[in-house]
């Protein structure tokens, strides 16, 4: 896989397409894409981790719930995440250990604020290599 | 050569274009776009027609799925969308309000002139930048615990004024008197409260801003006078922010709840972001009670910021509150759902009016507007981008008849944030504005390019369509002198 993810243009907001050899990798790359909008991922070190477990009625909702949980942790605990170790993922449940560090304005350049993950244009495609499309409200 | 949209739209007049129900199977009402022919070429490229049509699927929608002249591609609802549903048998949709619940605009007048302010503008902007926390990840100087936050959520502006942030007369000049009834903090998740506690009294990031501006045109001197605006060069302050992370979390929480409710009530929708539930259902009522909490949070937020603006002006100009004037002209919400009454076919109906990037525009004589504006209509505040201008208008009878008392809310983007960043650099934007006498200070210089004039429609075009279509009436225009961006 050449690219982990790419950013797609939307007039008011920002969308991403994340790729992966399997669904877990595509989910992890979608989360990386999210934090690449907020800061430069290279400036973030893995100094702490947070475990997240979310449940939903289907896999698309699971993706939205997980990304929203990461946005919540950024908003409340000011944690920038860069690596996502998904330990369980089926249609209704996701468990992940997420690595990153707290915002340090002297070394992290903050770019845009992400308000939430939307369902608009949401696609979780598990064909030949997995592909996820998601739009964030910013 | 005819534009592709000409095959789709029925022209009603130069500023009204109908999307017929036949455009997409499942629409319960037609769409109606307020726009000029020139604007439609852009709207078409964005394919917002689809989004206007999708909103027309909402059960209980009446009249038209409306698009204001600043319409642009959103998520679910278009931005600049208005939809009214029957409370009796219609739905409420959190997507029709958006994540930034009660994002809105507040305008303060002053006795200062541009001539007095310009020599001190750098000092003033620096002072405001220190006093009003802004930017991504910023936290406020107000300390509240969960119990105190619940008072903010139920009392809105009254909470802030009670704590010494501003004055009772500010409340009179605020939509809903800065306190939406029915707010119930028990319907708000603890996560929303955790996001809300540290962010109270912050401007935020993105398109939120605080602007010092000078009046440069007065179109309706009588209405302007009622707002305390009398002279060209008079300095005004415009504040644009909302309910911060609190509102974002309330919206996320209820899109989850209403996604399930959509299935439960057997509602079919073309876009999951339109998730909805009957207004009278437990899910619909819970959302409206939580939404009112977020609306009140936003009004308290703008009220606290107003207080710091006044303190900063007093400090920089060494004058008293009375000498400086600084009365609040008005405060409007532009992302909200309201229960309002309108006649349909001669019969009065109670409707849930969703305004997603649209401003309430009630006419003269309406019972819900303050006495000082009874004879002129409700002030409508339309910010432009930081390099152009902003407008003050008033609501009209035409808005009551045709757009459920609504009009546009801003310029509307034409360029994506990424495209704006590719073509412009933040530092160049600052320099270009400075050359025109506009001082800008931002939390992140990099993100300034995203908010440059080039990324927006010209607000003048938008306002002219709203004025000519009659859904609001122009009063005055102001040009920025100094801007703080989040």
The span between the termini of chain A is 28 Å
Helicity of chain B, as a percent range: 25-40%
Radius of gyration of chain A (CA) equals: 14 Å
CA radius of gyration of chain B is: 21 Å
- SSE pattern of chain A, N- to C-terminal: EEHEHEEEEE
Mean pLDDT across the residues of chain A is 93
Would you tell me which CATH topology of chain B applies? Answer: tRNA-splicing ligase RtcB
- According to CATH, the homologous superfamily of chain B is tRNA-splicing ligase RtcB
Number of strands of chain A: 8
Label the structural class of chain A.
Answer: alpha+beta
Work out the count of structural domains of chain B. Answer: 1
CATH architecture of chain A: 3-Layer(bab) Sandwich
Overall shape of chain B: it is globular
CATH topology call of chain A: Archease, Possible Chaperone, Chain: A, domain 1
Please provide a written account of the structure.
The complex is a heterodimer of chains A (138) and B (486). With 138 residues, chain A is of the alpha+beta class. Helices cover 25% and strands 39% of the residues of chain A. Chain A has one domain: Archease, Possible Chaperone, Chain: A, domain 1, CATH 3.55.10.10. Chain A contains 2 helices and 8 strands. In chain A, the strands form 2 sheets. In chain A, strands 1, 2, 6, 7 and 8 form a 5-stranded antiparallel β-sheet that branches. Chain A has a 3-stranded antiparallel β-sheet with strand order 3-5-4, covered by helices on one side. The longest helix of chain A has 19 residues, at 59-77. Chain B has one domain (4-414, 456-485): tRNA-splicing ligase RtcB, CATH 3.90.1860.10. Chain B has helices spanning 37-46, 48-55, 114-117, 121-131, 146-155, 157-162, 168-172, 190-199, 221-226, 244-264, 282-317, 321-324, 397-402, 417-423, 426-435, 445-448, 459-469; strands at residues 10-13, 16-19, 31-34, 61-75, 77-86, 91-92, 104-113, 209-218, 234-241, 277-278, 328-333, 335-344, 347-356, 359-360, 379-382, 390-394, 406-407, 439-442, 473-485. In chain B, strands 7, 8, 9, 11, 15, 16, 18 and 19 form an 8-stranded mixed β-sheet that branches. In chain B, helix 4 packs across helix 11 (282-317) and helix 10 (244-264) runs antiparallel to helix 11 (282-317). Chain B is globular, with a radius of gyration of 21 Å. Chain A binds chain B through residues 7, 9-14, 38, 56-57, 60-61, 65, 68, 71-72, 75-76, 78, 103, 105, 109-113, 115-122, 135, 137-138, and chain B through 46, 72-76, 79, 98-100, 135-137, 191, 194-195, 198-199, 204-206, 245, 248-249, 251-252, 255-256, 259-260, 271-273, 275, 413-419, 443-444, 446-447, 450, 486.
